[in-house]
Automatic annotation (TrEMBL):
Gene3D superfamilies: Winged helix-like DNA-binding domain superfamily/Winged helix DNA-binding domain
Keyword DNA damage: no
Keyword annotations of the record: Plasmid
InterPro entries named among the record's database cross-references: Metal_resp_DNA-bind_regulator (IPR052509), Tscrpt_reg_PadR_acidobac-type (IPR017799), Tscrpt_reg_PadR_N (IPR005149), WH-like_DNA-bd_sf (IPR036388), WH_DNA-bd_sf (IPR036390)
Species for this entry: Gemmatirosa kalamazoonensis
Keyword field contains Nucleotidyltransferase: no
Entry protein name: Transcriptional regulator, PadR-family
Domain Transcription regulator PadR N-terminal: 15-88
Length: 110
């Protein structure tokens, strides 16, 4: 239950961080979130695509359709300058939160 609640609040941060590296399509984002978190962060398409649409509407990411021979058309997203500003702010907030929770919970990091 706790992981589900944390996932809801951190998914935009994680998506922006993956898009900071390179443009990606939704399916790729979903697979990377799952793989790089070792299955802890698994986002279903029913949750991911509304998030992508919201981030695009808010101007944090931009999408464009790409067609490749022999493949179906996909929408690739890239982070915008505003998205990069938001990512920096969210990283600072997350680092502060993790430090505070770690201190309160008695968690030590190597």
């Amino acid at each position: 239950m706790l992981v589900d609640e944390l996932k809801k609040g951190t998914t935009p941060l994680l998506v922006l961080a993956l898009l900071e590296v390179q443009p990606r399509h939704g399916y790729e984002l979903s697979k990377l979130l799952d793989a790089q978190s070792r299955g802890v962060v698994h986002i279903h398409a029913a949750s991911l695509y509304p998030l992508l649409y919201r981030l695009e509407r808010d101007g944090w990411i931009e999408g464009r359709w790409v067609e490749k021979p022999g493949q179906r058309r996909r929408r690739y997203y890239h982070i915008t300058a505003e998205g990069k500003r938001q990512l920096r702010a969210q990283r600072r907030e997350w680092a502060d939160f993790v430090r505070a929770v770690g201190q309160l919970a008695g968690v030590e990091y190597a």
